[in-house]
Design a protein that fits this description.
Farnesyl Diphosphate Synthase; about 375 residues; Polyprenyl_synt_CS; globular; about 75% helix; transferase; Isoprenoid_synthase_dom_sf; mainly alpha; about 0% strand; Polyprenyl_synt; 17 helices
């Protein structure tokens, strides 16, 4: 069959009102209960809610879209699981910012930065305020993770499906944490990965909880066969890897107002992305290496590094890898025994990732000028 180029892509990332309402109710209830422990604890829940509101909601959209495309009828359960994945995503972001010592998320102060500012406004010294804010971020991530587990594990569906969802959540946490640990080791220089290891991190972190697990969760709720679930898992692995490779390119070449964070932090931290690993095999690396991973990397030097990378084959090699992954997704969808509606839904996700890739290619060209 012929794949629709964007299919449902235009509507894919619109927040679902039922998911938003459930998240609001869950988090407001927790905030109200937290009030007895003081305004700071109440603020943590308000900040978790703010973090949730800022997301694109595509993980919940994948759960709901997959459930619908496979003919599922457990609509309320799908909404609850979808909301659980948004809370899972929020928990990972809060902990990820803490691990990376980042204080900005989506162009605004993140949870830890807000808590630090509140502490300093009440007279705390900078050192204790930072330590307290980091503790608050650890706890906030744990709280969001627990709420996600409760939503996903508490759905009103037959017990075998609940057990499958809980097994999936356990697998998601196990794989994602392993990917985060490896990524942190690479960033600290404890081990320099090769390209296969870097791609495995993409599959373990972003792909697992953002694509593979939401696709499988929607399929479980729809009563899909194990074969269908495993096919969607493979599709999700390819989509997630492609998505992360695009995100890594955006993190270097896109303007900061486009990505909502620093576009020199990856270079400053010495992050071994596929882009960097490709560049290390090319003559351009002689121009990059002296400043790569410099904690005091300034913007002028970073701009020169960016221009050198943009003028090299490195970003185009990463682009080729993304296009190959997306092409494999399309081939698998055509040859796999999946319903037409599911094929069309996956085509919408593929089209969105391809559009993001085309966008970053333009940023690379601009950086090379």
């Amino acid at each position: 069959m012929t794949l629709s180029p964007l299919a449902q892509g235009a509507a894919l990332f619109r927040p679902h009102p039922d998911v938003d309402l459930l998240l609001r109710d869950v988090l407001e209830s927790a905030r109200a209960r937290a009030h007895v422990f003081g305004t700071e604890y109440e603020l943590i829940w308000s900040e978790i809610a703010r973090s949730v509101r800022g997301g694109k909601r595509f993980r919940s959209a994948i759960v709901l879209g997959t459930h619908e495309a496979l003919g599922g009828s457990a609509q309320r359960a799908a909404v609850e699981v979808a909301a659980g994945f948004e809370l899972l995503h929020t928990a990972f972001l809060i902990h990820d910012d803490l691990i990376d010592h980042d204080w900005v998320r989506r162009g605004k102060p993140n949870l830890a930065a807000t808590m630090r500012a509140v502490s300093m406004a009440t007279g705390s010294e900078e050192g204790p305020a930072q330590q307290w804010s980091e503790a608050a971020a650890v706890l906030a991530g744990d709280l969001a993770l627990t709420r996600a587990h409760r939503l996903i594990g508490g759905v009103d569906v037959p017990r075998p499906q609940v057990e499958q969802l809980l097994d999936l959540l356990d697998e998601t946490l196990l794989v994602s944490a392993g990917g985060e640990l490896a990524d942190t080791a690479y960033g600290l220089g404890l081990h320099v990965p090769d390209l296969d290891e870097a791609l495995l991190v993409c599959e373990s972190k972003t792909a697992m909880y953002s694509f593979r697990a939401p696709l499988r969760a929607g399929a479980i709720l729809a009563g899909a066969s194990l074969a269908e679930q495993m096919e969607l898992d493979h599709v999700g692995r390819l989509l997630g890897r492609a998505f992360q490779l695009v995100d890594d390119l955006l993190g270097v070449f896109a303007p900061e107002d486009r990505i909502g964070k620093s576009n020199i932090s990856d270079l400053r931290e010495g992050k071994h992305t596929a882009l960097v690993l490709r560049a290390q095999q090319l003559p351009v690396w002689d121009r990059i290496a002296p400043d790569f991973g410099r904690p005091d990397l300034d913007r002028e030097t970073a701009d020169a590094m960016r221009a050198a990378l943009a003028g090299s084959p490195a970003p185009h090699l990463v682009e080729d890898h993304v296009r190959q992954d997306l092409a494999e997704v399309e081939v698998r969808c055509v040859t796999a025994d999946l319903p037409d509606a599911m094929v069309e839904f996956v085509a919408g996700i593929t089209g969105h990732v391809r559009t993001a890739l085309d966008d970053v290619v333009e940023h690379v060209r601009a950086s090379a000028r």
